[in-house]
Each structure stands twice: as C-alpha cells, then as structure tokens.
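The authors assume throughout that readers already know how a fold can be written as discrete tokens. In essence, backbone conformation is discretised, so a fold becomes a row of integers matching the chain in length. A single example would do more here than another paragraph of explanation. For illustration, here is how one protein appears when written out as sequence plus structure tokens:

…
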Amino acid sequence: MSPAIALNLSLILLLPWYLVLGIVYWRTRRRPASAAQRLFDAASLLCALSAAAASGWWSMHHADPAAGAIWKQVLASLISYGAFLLVLACAFALRRMRGQRTVLTPVRSEASGTPS
C-alpha cells in the first residue's frame, strides 16, 4: 500500500459516514436558514472534516509501532471519528444556542408589569 493511502486510510474509510452525518447536520433546522446560518453550517462541516483529518494524521504518527500496522489504522479511525463528532456536536450546540437567542420575547417593564 502506498504511504499516502496508508496515512489517509482512516479518512477514506469513514468519508461516506461523515457525508451522512454532514447531511443530517445540514438538514436539522426547524426554520429556513439565512445565508449567515448556512455559512456557519458550511464552516462547521469544513472544520469537522479538517479536525478529523488532522487528528487521524496525528494519531498515525503517534501510535505505538510495536502494536502492528492495523492498530495504527484502528487508532487513527477512532480518534478522527471522535474529533469529527466533537466538532459537529459543538457546532450543533452553538447553532441551537444562537437560534434560541434570536427568538423575540416581549420585554416586561419592571414598573408596570406590562409588555413594552
């Protein structure tokens, strides 16, 4: 196997699953998204994929060589999948928090107790 493929094998094998998770993330909005929200979603997906690739490369270089070649790939796959999910979960939580903040609620006046 070529060294370039061996280095990227964990990313190559999990790419279809990342695509499925990315589509689910992209389509889980309750309201139509604005351009800024779509930009945030696209940047989040790009960051998640970048984190998966970087963590896979890092784990390939830091895996114990005595464990065998297959375990380097297993470690890289597990760590890159964890990194992808971590970034996607953080982006989902940020998206939910930002969405809740934009909901307009009436502000009550302290003196009269009526909405202003």
Remarks:
- The two ends are 69 Å apart (CA to CA).
- The helical segments are 3-27, 35-62, 69-101.
- The mean pLDDT is 85.
